[in-house]
Design brief:
Elements lengths: L13 H4 L26 H8 L4 H10 L12 H5 L3 H12 L1
Helix pairs in contact: 3-5
Length: about 100
């Protein structure tokens, strides 16, 4: 009889597995279209809301981890997120998980 090998699963990542931060988001209840502007210049209103948000870093980490290609997340547009270095992405993850 052969022994069954147990596979250890890592603990869930708090940024990817816990969505509770969304209940505290400053954008909760705001028209989602505001966060998907047609141009970078039109992102100002959404980014102003993000500036006041208590869960901004969790939102940004959520978008960075998923390579979210559209919209304003955590106060950054898609173009701004694309320009983030790997070190900046890791820093965002660490800050959000703290």
């Amino acid at each position: 009889m052969s022994a069954t090998k147990r596979t250890e699963h890592p603990a869930p990542d708090p940024v990817t597995e816990d969505y509770a931060w969304q209940t505290e988001a400053a954008c909760r209840g705001v028209d989602a279209e505001l966060f998907f502007p047609a141009t970078e210049d039109e992102a100002t209103a959404a980014m102003a809301i993000c500036e006041t948000c208590p869960v901004r870093m969790a939102c940004l980490a959520f978008a960075v981890e998923r390579n979210e290609r559209f919209g304003v997340w955590g106060g950054m547009t898609e173009k701004e997120r694309q320009r983030l270095s790997p070190a900046a992405r890791e820093s965002i993850r660490r800050h959000a998980a703290a």
